[in-house]
Amino acid sequence: TRCSRDWSSDVCSSDLGKSVYNQAGERIGEIDDVAINNKTRTTAAVIGVGGFLGIGETKAAVPLSQFQVQGDRVVAPTLTKDDLARLGEYRSADWTPYEADRTLGEAVGQ
Question: Which residues are registered as beta bridge partners of 59?
Answer without folding.
Answer: 48
